[in-house]
Task: structure prediction
Amino acid sequence: MVGRTSNETQDYAGASGAPCAFGRRRGAGTMLTEPAIFAKDTSCECRAPHEKLSIAQARRGTPMDRPVRVYADGIFDLFHSGHARALMQAKNLFPNAYLIVGVCSDELTHKYKGFTVMTEDERYEALRHCRYVDEVVRDAPWTLTQDFLEKHQIDFVAHDDIPYSSAGTEDVYKHIKEAGMFVPTQRTEGISTSDLITRIVRDYDLYARRNLQRGYTAKELNVSFINEKKYCLQNQVDRMKEKVKTVEEKSKHFVYRVEEKSHDLIQKWEEKSREFIGNFLELFGPDGTWKQVFSERSGRMISYAMSPRGSPSNSPPRQLSPSRSPSPPSCWPRPRPASPSSPKEASASFSSMSEEDENDK
Result:
């Protein structure tokens, strides 16, 4: 039965090849924006007489007021994509299909299969809001009876063709297959209710810590006092690890920025150094400006020292008498007297210099 095992199916258009009618009406006048209806306890109300159909007739198509009533049943605990794909296939088996989904109660499920995670009311509501479902039958039977098929005027039953042994039988769908009312669907591997529960059990500590962080109490999680303290300590350690990781990332970013700034400073320093060295060589190098200036000044000084200084051009010529020999001109340098050693000698020297001047006059 669908949902009693893994409820896994592959995504395909259906045996009839009809495209998925995502935008059409569910049936019975309801739109996809509304949840599916619950089946009534009384018999089905159909507008057209319910005549038995063959699979070939159903695949060719039926009048709009005579949809092909397809039934799929199961547990549908922890409703997942495998369930939805199974129902999508059942809905698209025929061009004009009306999908009825039977959901077993908690009592039957706990008796024949085991404990469920979701309650029966939660499972009913999950099916009502699946887009492929037109009608939901609550408290569906574990094994389909002729009375049940007639009551709901079911044309075909959809399920994967793997024999489902339960309730003391090798295959609960054996009599449906023999009556020609069984239409097979395909399973999808990799997703099932049992797989989901296995993941939770396998990572129990992780999910217990998760819910403790979200505000659930140890009593609600059925966690002992010691485990509660252990989980709280692990959560604190994880938070500390996150803080350390954050600090490391920020430190790496800071170091990267410092390295980037240092690289820029070194590059600018190298540029300034090259510029300073170039200016220095241009000024003081072998062919630098300073050497040229020094050479020019040295040349002027040497040429000035080698050529004697001439007389002034505006000095009057001196008349020499024939009887006297020419005396050295007054402009010649006189021998410099020795420095006086006492004030008396200084005054005597000064008097003699005055007398010499008078004689020259």
Q: What stands out?
A: The chain is about 45% helix and 10% strand. The mean pLDDT is 77. The CA atoms of residues 269 and 284 lie 22 Å apart.
